[in-house]
Amino acid sequence: QARRDWFRSAVVYQVYPRSFADSNGDGIGDIPGIIGKLDYLKRLGVDVVWLSPVYRSPHDDNGYDISDYQDIDPVFGSLADLNELIAGLHQRGMKLIMDLVVNHTSDEHPWFAESRASKDSPKRDWYWWRPARPGCQPGVPGAEPNNWGSFFSGPAWQYDEATGEYFLHLFSKKQPDLNWENAEVRAAVYSMMNWWLDRGVDGFRMDVINFISKDPSLPDGPVRGGGLYGDGAASFISGPRIHEYLHEMHEQVFSGRDGALLTVGEMPGVTVEDAALFTDPERAEVDMVFQFEHVGLDHDGSKWKPKRLRLTDLKASLGRWQDGLAERGWNSLYWGNHDQPRVVSRFGDDGAYRETSAKMLAGILHLHRGTPYIYQGEELGMTNMAFASIAEHRDIEVLNHYREATETLNEAPAVVLAAIAPLNRDNARTPVQWVAGPDGGFTTGTPWIAVNPNAAEINAEEQAGQDDSVLNFYRRLIALRHGMPIVAQGDFTMLLPDDESVYAFTRTYEGTELLVLGNFTPREQTVDIGDPLWAGAERILGNYPDAHGLDLRAWEFTALIRS
Ligand code: ISL
Ligand code: CA
């Protein structure tokens, strides 16, 4: 096994710093807060921490709008704190990967200030500036250079009076898109990345990195289902020069370095065929990608139109990714992150079977072939939050959508609130629940977003002391990956593709076989995989105290092994 492939047996833990742990009582999580939890992470057993952005930012999108890539925002601490975090992780044998957000900057980044200053600014071409649509009066609605909508509602273009032109922003109007066609932009990004790696950082999670290459003609996109705007995706998802850019980045930043680094590209809309190219080691682009198919199955196009997940769809999707990256490339595995709802509420049962179903979901995910990612609090079985009103929300995506739906489209507020409840991003952004006490021990001040009132029942302190807790189940899963080559390396075969209730697959490695079963329902399931001999195999992990052969109790998970 190539040394490059150390990450096959690694588990990554995502810290969303704003909601992790607050050290100074201002209600916002910070780097000293993370440092205070390093022993917790070590006990859990994770190998790598992915830290969501802590750079200087106006926080229009909670740090995904960066105004200085080479400094820490004072709300999170200082560069000295970050050094201490890196040292603390390295001392404990863990790595740190930083978030790399270079599809866009903040509009308060000096690069953008310079770019916007005049049409002949040397940095004008660093962003996407375009005049109004021909024949239209600049600045009036409908005069935008094309019909694209932004991911955060409204048009993807903002008019700038100073020069009478528009700039492109796929996300908020405070997140102007960088123009990667410009070689100076690319050089500036690579130099910043090298600066971080030289400081001891072990790699990057690359935000919407498959959006950086755009078709420079920026054509109108299709308007679907009575929508207000066109969809520009075809012009920027895995655009014309994306492989060239990622290979160039690899050459300029990673190729000359030894040491076990990690790169993971966040790639909404990426296909499995493209992912095989992005993650083929021979092509030298990235180690793995985050794909989005499996988190798109429980809504119709828009996340604000939720629908029930069909288990057969989930298996078909994840199974195709397992097959598609079996020979070349590598999968990342995740149920959640700071943009997704809590998985136990989404695909499990966050009521009576919360603990059982949280463990089942964890077991199923972690025993796939790929590198698993744990989003903070997932290891506790944290749940979605029941926000009582729009005033309790903080996320720009859901706030902008609510305003557009109620004001522009005249939808009833109660209807909109109900529609946003299952999948909005604030579900995952309530603070980590450390203890049963006030605000879950997250802060001594007023938390920036409410702590889930279920902190009294769901918290790390209590679970650390209970052998059968969700937390301890995650520890066992991580230990299995570390200890068993079949988990890290084994081949994957999906079973029972047509079963709406049971998730089943095998892993095989050098004459050993692992059978993994998960019941996605509260009803008992009889499992027939056409091989009765499995019934007597040894159980290596389960979410019920006793083994029970192949038949599954409510939300049961079982992993059996034989040679
Ligand atoms: O939720 C989405 C759109 O409805 C996703 O497409 C999401 O915006 C996408 O996954 C990109 O996410 C990343 O970039 C965004 C940032 O807001 C997210 O937090 C980040 O993970 C812009 O930087
Ligand atoms: Ca703080």
UniProtKB/TrEMBL annotation:
It comes from the Bacteria. CDD domains: AmyAc_SI_OligoGlu_DGase. Belongs to the glycosyl hydrolase 13 family. Keywords: Glycosidase, Hydrolase. GO terms for biological process: oligosaccharide catabolic process. The keyword Cell division does not apply. GO terms for molecular function: alpha-amylase activity. PANTHER family: ALPHA-AMYLASE FAMILY MEMBER, OLIGO-1,6-GLUCOSIDASE 1. NCBIfam families: PRK10933.1. It comes from Arthrobacter terricola. SUPFAM superfamilies: (Trans)glycosidases, Glycosyl hydrolase domain. The keyword Ribonucleoprotein does not apply. Pfam families: Alpha-amylase. Residues 14-429 form the Glycosyl hydrolase family 13 catalytic domain. InterPro entries: GH (IPR017853), GH13_cat_dom (IPR006047), Glyco_hydro_b (IPR013780), O16G_dom_2 (IPR045857). This is Alpha-glucosidase.
